[in-house]
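Hi team, as promised in this morning's meeting, here are the two structures we talked about. I've kept the exact order from the run log so nobody has to guess. The first one is mostly here for context; it's the second one we should focus on when we meet again. Sequence first, then the predicted structure tokens.
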Amino acid sequence: MLLVEPELQAPAPAHQRVNGAASVEFGAREDGSRLVDLYQRAPCRILFPDVDDGEPPQAVLLTTSGGLTGGDRLQVELRVGAHAQATLTTQAAEKIYRAVPGGGDVDIATHVTVGAGGYAEWLAQETILFDHARLRRHFVADLEGDACLLATESVVLGRSAMDESLRTGFVHDAWRIRRDGRLVFADALHLDGDIAVLRDLPFGFGAARACGTVLLAAPAAAALLARVRAALGDSNVAHATTSEGLLIVRVLAPSAAALRDAVLAAAGALRHALRGLAPRLPQVWHC
């Protein structure tokens, strides 16, 4: 057996990981809300499509890596100044692939700040989790005075059309929303280990493969409860409630398509009722 000197041994292969970031800021000007600051680091990119008259300026976040896996990190920041309005959405569903043993979690941190009199939309399309995926996601919002925020986040536990399912893995999906420094909403979904078993527990997922939240933080949120329930119709996958300046829609659906239909209906109705905007989410949601 031929021995190889230690210094001549090839180094262990290192898995390439991404550490992306995107930060976008909008401010109020005499001619409307305008982009005032932008920073982006690969694989994050921000695009600025044209929007219809009366719509907020729109930024579209995409990741050029084609998906994420264990050890990858993304940091996203949206800042909307006093009396400004803006929408940040995502170009497509994000895919979280299998993590190699010891490879760590995908870490996604989103921070939204909105000044007094401002209106922000964080409209993230669904995140699809493959078997053995590991995701740690945090959404934090800081609102000033009467600022308003409409936000969506969701996860799909495997692509049912491809007969895929998230059976084993890790998901920690946390929300924190503060108004004038006071915590007004805290929530977390935590699944670890044998997710197939956890889903079947009492008060678990049952037959559902996708879950999501649509949240409106606004002084007038409670007054819109009847409007959003009417938009959801007789849906048996989504339910809405209110609490202290918040309107919360929970979705637990058997498929990604059913989840998306409920999110589109709820978020569209809320933006229309609150701001008089089109009851339709950005065009990238319909491509």
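And here is the second protein, the one for discussion:
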Amino acid sequence: MVSVLLLEDDSLLSESLEIFLERENYSVDVASTQEEAEELSYKKRYDVYLFDINLSDGNGLDLLEALRHAEDYTPTIFITALHDMNSLAKGFDLGAIDYIKKPFNPQELLIRLNAKFKNAIVRYKNIEYDESAGILRKDGELIQIGNIQFNIFVKLLLNQGLVVDKSELYEVLEHPSDNSLRVALSKIKQRLEIEIKNIRGKGYLLEKI
């Protein structure tokens, strides 16, 4: 389930968006002030931020700038009534991926979210694969593994519960062999602390949870 932090000081709008998005299987936390949103962002990792720009206690742009300085690169969509191109340009400079202008139909926001995030997060136990960003997180923290191990794990992850023929895994190896595949799988298991089953004579399996 895609998790959303919604920062909106219009209580009627925030409540209606929360109800609407949760009906569409999004997980939504709502903040009405910049300070509240900042606190929530430190306590929990979100898949996307929806930030209003004009707030009673501050500015969504300033909040995103502070979060970026704290190395929080969560994808962000701005909600705005502004027609100020400089503000929108600043938002994109800070890494915003989209914006939507008030007033808007919630269905329009849903279309934008679905296009960017629906089915983009694949989870296995405490590990998440963000397909759109091409990154892995473990317990909410970014985790780095070698490119070969990354590609092998993703192939297994996207085929959870299915045996992946070792010939498919050979395709991502620089020098395909049984030994190099075993070494790569061993590194994955150690780094991610997971179990990958060897189905003798067939391939490898990441059991579906």
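Starting points for discussion:
The radius of gyration is 20 Å.
The chain has eight helices and 14 strands.
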